[in-house]
């Protein structure tokens, strides 16, 4: 369950932001963007983040997770597209391919062709990895005004 190691990395970044915020009292919300190609289970990540955040300023923070669909660009003609829900389901339902994508999301481009020109010279534009979109921190007004 690599969600725990991801949660630990997120928590480290959240704690850094907390320490750098004058008058910080607690973390109220953590907004994450999770790329579908990362094959991270959002509920497992949410659970892991709640566990690792115990006894930290982020203990009771709301965790908002937005799943980000993959987007690809053809390097030959410049066309960009998102795969259909059926295409995503085919990948996730194929144990061998989903394992490959889970280990290395970049491998997916070797299975793609541009829907416009047919080229297999394709790159991933979005949809892999986990990104901290924002962190809301409650501050003590008395401390932050100095």
Describe this structure in words.
The protein is built from five helices and six strands. With 146 residues, it is an alpha+beta fold. The longest helix has 17 residues. The mean pLDDT is 91.
Summarize the structure.
The protein has helices at residues 3-19, 42-52, 85-93, 95-103, 141-144, and strands at residues 24-35, 62-68, 71-74, 80-81, 122-126, 130-139. It has 146 residues and is an alpha+beta fold. It has a single domain (3-140), classed as hypothetical protein PF0899 fold (2-Layer Sandwich), CATH 3.30.2320.
- In total, the number of domains comes to 1
Give the helix tally: 5
**Poorly predicted parts:** none
Q: Rough shape?
A: elongated
Q: Would you report the number of β strands?
A: 6
The Cα radius of gyration reads 19 Å
CATH A-level architecture: 2-Layer Sandwich
Strand content: 25-35%
| Oligomer description | single chain
Which descriptors apply to this entry?
three-stranded mixed β-sheet, 5 helices, 146 residues, 27% strand, hypothetical protein PF0899 fold, alpha+beta, elongated, three-stranded antiparallel β-sheet, single chain
């Amino acid at each position: 369950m690599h969600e725990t190691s991801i949660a630990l990395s997120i928590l480290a970044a959240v704690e850094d932001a907390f320490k750098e915020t004058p008058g910080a009292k607690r973390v109220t919300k953590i907004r994450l963007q999770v790329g579908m190609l990362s094959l991270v289970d959002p509920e497992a990540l949410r659970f892991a983040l709640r566990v690792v955040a115990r006894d930290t300023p982020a203990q009771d923070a709301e965790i908002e997770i937005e799943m980000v669909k993959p987007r690809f660009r053809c390097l030959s003609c410049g066309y960009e597209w998102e795969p259909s829900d059926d295409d995503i389901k085919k990948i996730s339902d194929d144990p061998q391919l989903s394992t490959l994508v889970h280990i290395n999301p970049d491998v997916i481009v070797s299975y793609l062709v541009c829907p416009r020109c047919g080229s297999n010279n394709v790159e991933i534009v979005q949809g892999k990895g986990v990104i901290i979109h924002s962190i809301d921190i409650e501050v003590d007004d008395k401390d932050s005004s100095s």
